[in-house]
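FORM 7B: Structural annotation worksheet

SECTION A. Query
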Amino acid sequence: MYLVAGLGITGQSVLRYFAAQGEPCLAFDTRNNLDITALETCFSQTQFALGELPKSWLKQFDTVVLSPGIAQSEPWVQALKELGKQVIGDIELFARTVNVPVIAITGSNGKSTVTTMTGMALQVAGYQVGVGGNIGEPVLDLLLDENEYDLYVLELSSFQLETCYSLSPQAATVLNISEDHMDRYPSMAEYIQAKMNVFSNTELAVLPEGFSEQGIFHPVTISRFGLGECVIQSERDFGVVTLEGGEKFLGCGQQAILAISEMALQGKHHQLNALAMMALCQPFQVSAEHFKQVVRSFHGLPHRTQLLGIFEGVSWVNDSKGTNVGATLTAIETLGAQTLSDQTEGALILLLGGVSKDADFSELLPAVQRWCRHTIIFGRDKTLISECLMGTAHTTLDTLEEATTFAKQLALPGDCVLFSPACASFDQFSNYMQRGDVFMQQVSALYEMDVDENVASKAC
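SECTION B. Predicted structure
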């Protein structure tokens, strides 16, 4: 018998999976006010409990399937572990069932983009690909749908990897590491270790330039990617190849694969994403032409440095997916360089704030000083963030609507308003997607026009 703990998107996918398997289970959520009427109707054979776990259940289950949003450090979870209950997640259930190759992708930033691009490259190459995990469909829903997939490409968060022990990817990567979720992890070392779990049973480990191999404890093929001159040390390493005449290509070893000038998205972080995609596809039959089709056509994902439009000479960029300091730092540096190179009078007006996750926002200070004419800080942890940006021009407000309105008042022709919160959204929004949609609606209202008609349909 299983206990499904947490009844959000992941927990509900677990219920569907067990129902399809004819596997009995119990279902629990700590939220007393959660409306589970529809769940009780849909899963009539399942017992539900809210608020507190019934003591009478303790002898009925052996394994807890824990939703990734619930920390194992929660006292009630620790108590169950002390009773000998096994704690796993939905990715572990998937790993115990899947019988085709898996590509596993994690990291602090860029996971969704690289996962999407990798899936696109494999699909163009003729594979039937299931793409999901921390992006799109939950993995167990992929197992249940009617498609016969040749392989799966999964975005995995550190939370999902904490409770996964059996996954054996054909290829896996940690794209990068920057401080995140410090409200959940006691130290960066523990956060990094959670990410490193992706390599536990992989055949090919794709590592970013300078990333240590420590923590990979079994024989594995190593492939590196990066933009540095020394990253290419073997025929399995991916980096920048310069041909005679000076044109730069992304390549493997000394083989040029695609010209950087062909990419729809310019910028170093887009090059890194493309290199990671190509490295992850090594075990499969994907050609240079397939990669070219992807980078020529891929214009980025919604809420990721998404250009909403240029209104009265001011560029408005939605980077609601910037949920940590590292992501926002990349957005500031990329957009700052573009703005000042295009028009010397231009500057960034940065909007950030929300739930800080105990991050160190002082890491933004050099970039803010260099690129931002003004920073507008909103949300629950605005005071904490403001203290980290002392000495810079900034204003604290309560809501995103106030911040957006004030940004329009400040913005001059040639400026770029960058909404990259560097925070979680849960103080005022359900998720980063709702937060980004609200920002877009507010920009529309400020200019009394439909932003959709002006969206450039690309990332910056």
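SECTION C. Observations
The chain has a mean pLDDT of 94. The chain has three domains: 2-88, 93-297, 306-453.

SECTION D. Sign-off
Analyst initials: ____
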